[in-house]
Amino acid sequence: MITLLLLFYVIDKRLVEINFKLIINLSLTYIIVWGVSHVFESMRAFNQEEIINLALRDSLTQAYNRRAFKSHFHNHIDFSNPYCFALADLDFFKKVNDKYGHDAGDATARSL
């Protein structure tokens, strides 16, 4: 590119000025596009982490859901060693919602 500019400089000084302005314009455009793409890639990485968190946790209680359990169980359990896990179930929880309302039921679920 520099050789080409020197050649044009020998031929016509005005043409060099035009090419210099073009190079500056293209350089600034490249810097702006790189900056914008960097910002969007950073936002994409953050949003991807948030989406994974939303997919693996219950939105009300923030407890891990069945999908998270299956993933963890499949990836981390060594079947040659003994293991244990526990599940909990709230019996008649619908009665709490019916009697005190869904807001009270949500508060109860979060407190457990």
Bin the strand percentage: under 5%
| Overall pLDDT confidence | 79
Structural class: mainly alpha
Main sheet summary: none
Order of helices and strands: HHHHH
Individual helix count: 5
Q: Using DSSP, what is the number of strands?
A: 0
Q: Which word captures the global form?
A: elongated
- N/C terminus separation: 69 Å
Helix share, percent = over 70%
Radius of gyration: 31 Å
Query: How many domains, in number, for the residues?
Result: 2
- Unreliable parts: none
How is this fold's topology laid out?
Layout: H1 2-11, H2 13-56, H3 66-76, H4 93-100, H5 102-111
List keywords for this structure.
transmembrane, single chain, 2 domains, 112 residues, diguanylate cyclase, membrane, mainly alpha, 0% strand
Structural description of this entry:
- One of its GO terms (biological process) is negative regulation of bacterial-type flagellum-dependent cell motility.
- Pfam families: GGDEF (PF00990).
- It comes from Pseudoalteromonas haloplanktis.
- This protein has 112 residues and is mostly helical.
- It has two domains: 56 residues; 54 residues, no CATH class.
- It has five helices and no strands.
- Helix 1 packs antiparallel against helix 2.
- The longest helix is centred in the first third of the chain and has 44 residues.
- The chain is elongated, with a radius of gyration of 31 Å.
- The mean pLDDT is 79.
Quickly describe the structure.
74% of the residues lie in helices and 0% in strands.
